[in-house]
Write a structure and sequence with these properties.
This protein is α/β, with parallel strands linked by helices. It folds into two domains: 35-114, no CATH class; 118-252, 3-Layer(aba) Sandwich (Rossmann fold), CATH 3.40.50. Helices cover 42% and strands 19% of the residues. The longest helix is centred in the C-terminal third of the chain and has 18 residues, at 235-252. The two termini are 23 Å apart.
Length: 253
């Protein structure tokens, strides 16, 4: 990331004696964020977390997203995730930035660049109706540098569909289990694999599913050890967490 290179350059100048420690401290103090009035863009996110700030697009205007992206482009950021935006916003952003838009996930990757993929993450869904949330998770993980295998429509109503995919499940470093209705997929997967399972309840289901609340409570009460739960429809959060788990494993191996 360009921000990391900026900090390294400052440290090298101090080492070489071309920059005083006091001036270096001032430069670093000025570096962490830029105040755009409507947003404070966090340039040090990549330094702290290894990933540039992600833009949550819902409820932001197109102009606000444009301003944030432009400020990040000036600092050399690439592969910026813009979540929860519609195709009209994506088309408007494409006029100013290179941008890949994924309509099913309602997610865009601004200033896209190739990334080296590693490890193994599986994203599984109970049904086809869960795919939009699953794609948000899968694409997030891919942009962050992870290899992702998709297993869609493998829910408990036809358990043989899941059991026919044991090989990718058993070799995964993390599994994202996305399901609505009663959310049983996460417990089943959690009972099969030896890696962390990230359960994502979706708002898919009939009346008593209560907009995903039934799946959320089922997943929170899972008896399968090693299963954690993110919020309803939070594919992004699941993909990000799976990436952390996978890349910690990669760093140790």
């Amino acid at each position: 990331m360009a921000v990391k290179h900026d900090i390294l350059s400052v440290l090298q100048e101090v080492r070489d004696g071309t920059l005083s420690p006091e001036d270096a401290l001032l430069r670093l103090k000025l570096a962490p964020f830029e105040d755009l009035g409507y947003a404070k863009v966090d340039y040090h996110r990549a330094v702290r977390q290894g990933v540039p700030e992600v833009i949550y697009g819902q409820s932001k205007t197109t102009e606000q997203i444009r301003g944030i992206l432009e400020s990040m482009r000036r600092r050399g950021c690439i592969n910026i995730l813009v979540t929860r935006i519609g195709p009209d916003v994506a088309e408007a952003l494409k006029e100013q930035f290179p941008l890949r838009y994924e309509p099913l996930a309602r997610l865009a990757v601004a200033l896209p660049e190739p990334v080296q993929s590693r490890g193994s993450i599986v994203v599984a869904t109970g049904g086809t109706s869960d795919m939009s949330v699953a794609e948000e998770a899968a694409i997030t993980a891919e942009v962050l540098g992870n290899s992702v295998t998709r297993l869609y429509d493998v829910g408990v109503a036809g358990l043989h569909r899941l059991l026919s995919n044991l090989e990718p499940l058993m070799s995964a470093r993390a599994v994202v289990a996305v399901a609505g209705m009663e959310g049983a997929l996460a417990s089943v997967v959690g009972g099969l694999v030896d890696c962390p399972v990230i359960a994502v309840p979706t708002s898919v289901g009939y009346g008593a599913s209560l907009g995903g609340l039934s799946a959320l409570l089922s997943m929170l009460n899972s008896c399968a050890s090693g299963t954690s739960v993110v919020n309803i429809d939070n594919g992004f959060g699941a993909g990000f967490l799976a990436s952390r788990i996978n890349q910690m494993e990669s760093a140790e191996s």
